[in-house]
Amino acid sequence: MSFTIEGATGPWEIVCGLEVHAQVTSNAKLFSGAATAFGAAPNSQVSFVDAGFPGMLPVINRECVAQAVRTGLGLKAQINLWSRFDRKNYFYADLPQGYQISQYAHPIVGTGAIEIELADGSTKTIGITRLHLEQDAGKSLHDQHPTKSFIDLNRSGVALMEIVSEPDMRSPEEAGAYLTKLRQILRYLGTCDGNMDEGSMRADVNVSVRKAGEAYRTRCEVKNVNSIRFVMQAVEAEARRQIEVWESGGSVDQETRLFDTGRGVTRSMRSKEDAHDYRYFPDPDLPPLVLEAEWVEGLKATLPELPDARRARYVAMGLSPYDAHVLTLEKETAAYFETVAQGRDAKVAANWVTGDLFAAINRTKTSIAEPPVPAEHLGALLDLLANKTLSGTLAKTVFEAMIETGKSPGAIVQERGLRQVTDTGAIERMVDQVLEANADKVAEYRAGKEKLFGFFVGQVMKAMQGKGNPALVNEVVKKKLG
Amino acid sequence: MSLDTATVRRIASLARIRLEEPEVPRMQAELNGILGWIEQLQAVDTEGVEPMAGGGAVSLRMREDAVTDGGIPEQVLANAPDREGEYFGVPKVVE
Amino acid sequence: MHPTDFTLRGAIEALNEGLLTSVELTQAHLDAITALNPRLNAYVTVTAEQALAQAKASDARRAAGVAGPLEGVPLAIKDLFCTAGVRTTAGSRILDNFIPPYESTVSGNLLRDGAVFLGKVNLDEFAMGSSNTTSAFGPVENPWSRANDPDTRLVPGGSSGGSAAAVAARLALGATATDTGGSIRQPAAFCGIAGIKPTYGRCSRFGIVAFASSLDQAGPVARTVEDCAILLRSMAGFDPKDSTSADVPVPDFAAACARGVKGLRIGVPKEYRLEGTPPEIEALWEQGLAWLREQGAETVEISLPHTKYALPTYYIVAPAEASSNLARYDGVRFGRREKGADLKDLYERTRAAGFGAEVRRRIMIGTYVLSAGYYDAYYLKAQKIRALIKRDFDQAFANVDAIVTPATPSAAFGMDEKQDDPVTMYLNDVFTVTANLAGLPGLSVPSGLDAQGLPLGLQVIGRAFDEETVFAVGNAIEQAADFTALPRLRAGA
């Protein structure tokens, strides 16, 4: 069933496309040798190229190009072996050159596609129009001084990939799922860290609404939305605003808007200036970017496994589609799981990771990147379970101890003597003692009070400090009570 | 193609060059003189000709991804007309 | 012999032989600057102390036996080249008191080879002009004057007018210059000296204030073709900091000067026979071709059919690139700033006050031809005609080794002449601009005098990266012309 918004005049359909700006993971900037690290002192990661000084010239960073190609390959997109950089001319305080070097007419990556998963289990293909490389601008701080804005150029010149989708999304959920999936792919590829709160990914959201069967109506662009949740909210808020405009007899003007996260509404940008006329033209400082087909093939050959392929592989390993989905959401989770599952039962490994480990992460407020228990330790614990050194109950105890101490399960078992007792003679002696000490209860049991069976097992386990093999204990108690 | 005064003002605004009202007619006349002279290019048959953008190399050389620059905030800020601590200062911008 | 009368090569020999020191040579030039610059206005910044310190260090290096190819030679640097720690103005008010913390690659190469910098020389603002009258630091005067009208002050040509005037008046042994449409060759011709715009990509553009990136090329001006060859060898070379720099070896250009022209085929483009060209320029051209034939070259008529479209094409391409290149002068990070009510007002006031009339005009034209709706009709059209112009040359060079033309359509003109209409001024570059559009090397050689006693130049255009043939042909013309006339204003005169 498709998503619609009910207006006064009936149902409306949302049409949405996203332009995502993803910061390329690289040591140095796209056209200069200055660093890209987040959080450095103002203007400390700025070269004279980034600051637009007279006579400075751009020289392209090979790794940024490689990252764009990897991303294109990950989006199953066409790689253009001939692309070109254009200048997009406009004046702004944090745009030192007075133009942004971008790829307007000839992007490095052409059409591709992303398959998104929706809550009802269905999937949908969203078209990718293009991906191009461009420079980021600097940062303006407006809250430092009553009458001035402050400019920090650390971001100026950092490589961005602008990834443009087709207007294929029809609901806030689809927009959210698209951004989630895109982020997941970028993080798997290692081409963008996806840290939206550090500005590594921002989305410009294009929204229009229409009645069923209509052609597209005028769209608005909501700029610089910086979280998946806000993208979903912005799509809905902007769609509702437009429906209201149309239904009150007005018409939607094509414009750029901002999303007010506090009030959950979009508003027109105040600094509209005169109509933009970017005067794109080929950057005469930069000859065309011509790639060797063999170089692209080399990048393709070393591409990591992507989420869809990995999920399919996990299902083939015997995991449920749900576990496979959960384990592949984050690259780090999948890596953790693979370490634990290496040479072990995949389903058991999946249960421990999605169950005990996730719970422990929540409880200890840690993350999969810095887990409370290293994957190697969890794997060793699973080995102790498999070879029956530990019972399920003991394993949980050991797991908690691993979280507390950071020690390996082997060391904990050794120190605390937590080895499971499977010696039948020892268990029989303990059962005899318990039955002897509880002669009255034995009599009651034999008189028919069978639910006391659990009591005897419990007493034995308690006497054995939980180390008795539960199955053996059961068996012996049953035999002795005869 | 001849420029009217509104276009002259729009171009000046795009180029961020303040043009006082009395200067507009003169600028208009000069630009139209140049554009009129340039107009002769329309006579050239360029059907099927690939545009030539640059003078030199056919493809970009790529550099290695190493941090070789930056870390010079004092030099970057040294020529600033309005330096505000570690920042460049400009009149407040409203978005 | 006065030290300022040496050619650059002669000075190197004299230094090598210990006939004088770099300090003496440098001091002689500084004295000449003190005496003549107030009149000529060739230098906008004289770095006397630094020059003497460099000369002293150079003499020490020479004494220690580690002399570079340009050891101790005093040069002038066009004020478009950024020089570390020395004010760089581009002839504009907008750069104000800009002190670059970096050195341009070309000037750095000269320092590497032992050169001494006397100071920064005047130019048309942002290298936009053909008369050096658009500089914020006032016009430069040509050291030459008309025989029958010595009081009319003449322009030195532009944009490298300060470079050419300084070298002609013996205020430097040579100078750096740049050429976007003729800015080396036209002032060289007007001032009776030699100057070469090398192949695009031969000299790095890193650290040179950009005018039109796809056309700009640095090159030397000096009093002889061979001196230009010596300077170019030091200036040129691959630079990884410029993506348009060519990764090709730098040959010994000076050695190529002596090759001779025997067996060379020299093209004579019929489209360069322009109506209205003074007969004495036509005659000089014929004379130059005759000299080359006498020395064993063959001259053949060729056709460069799109020549007449070159200037209007240039006046789309160059302003378009300039409008973008000059956007960085916004009063935020360096240079002049005017107060404004808001950021836009600040930009508009800063740029209106900081840029002169010609620069503003070209930014306006460039902005217009790139603007929505006009890009195809102007910019794209110009790029296609540029391709046709290049194709004309490619076809011509299939049959000839070099092309010889007049350098300019007239001799130097008066400072008040040709100022009424921008297009009249633009026509100065009619013979030179094609080499920029096609990216080819072009050399201007002083070849004769007009009836007024003013110098005239011939231009040699060569294949891309074949400056050696250009130098050989230029040297042959120079030898035959035996150009010994001297400007009235000069050191030691």
Would you mind describing this structure in some detail?
The complex is a heterotrimer of chains A (482), B (95) and C (493). Chain A is built from 15 helices and 17 strands. Chain A is of the alpha+beta class and 482 residues long. Chain A has 3 domains: 5-296, no CATH class; 304-416, no CATH class; 424-481, Arc Repressor Mutant, subunit A. In chain A, the strands form 4 sheets. In chain A, strands 1, 2, 7, 8, 11, 12, 13, 14 and 15 form a 9-stranded mixed sheet that branches. In chain A, strands 6-5-16 form a 3-stranded antiparallel sheet, with no helix packed on it. In chain A, helix 7 (331-341) crosses helix 8 (346-364), helix 7 runs parallel beside helix 9 (375-386) and helix 12 (424-437) crosses helix 14 (453-463). The longest helix of chain A has 20 residues, at 228-247. Chain B has 3 helices and 3 strands; from the N terminus they run H-H-E-H-E-E. Chain B is an alpha+beta fold. A two-stranded antiparallel ribbon of chain B has the order 2-3. Chain C has a domain at 3-257: Alpha-Beta Complex (Amidase signature (AS) enzymes), CATH 3.90.1300. Chain C has an 11-stranded mixed sheet with strand order 1-3-2-4-6-5-10-11-9-7-8, sandwiched between helices. The longest helix of chain C has 21 residues, at 376-396. Chain C is globular, with a radius of gyration of 21 Å. The termini of chain C are close together. The relative contact order of chain C is 0.14. The mean pLDDT of chain C is 97. Chains A and B meet through strand 3, helix 1, strand 10 and strand 17 of A and helix 1, strand 1, helix 3 and strand 3 of B. Strand 3 of chain A pairs parallel with strand 1 of chain B.
In short:
The complex is a heterotrimer of chains A (482), B (95) and C (493). The two termini of chain B are 36 Å apart. With 95 residues, chain B is an alpha+beta fold.
Look at the structure and give the mean pLDDT of chain A: 93
**Ends apart, CA distance between termini of chain A:** 62 Å
The percent range for strand residues of chain B is 5-15%
- In quaternary terms, these chains amount to heterotrimer
Query: Which structural class matches the secondary elements of chain A?
Result: alpha+beta
Radius of gyration of chain B: 22 Å
Q: How does the overall form of chain B come out from the CA principal axes?
A: flat
Q: Within the CATH hierarchy, at the fold level, what is the topology of the domain at 5-41 in chain B?
A: Histone, subunit A
Q: What is the terminal separation of chain B in angstroms? A: 36 Å
CATH architecture of the domain at 5-41 in chain B: Orthogonal Bundle
Mean pLDDT of chain B: 93
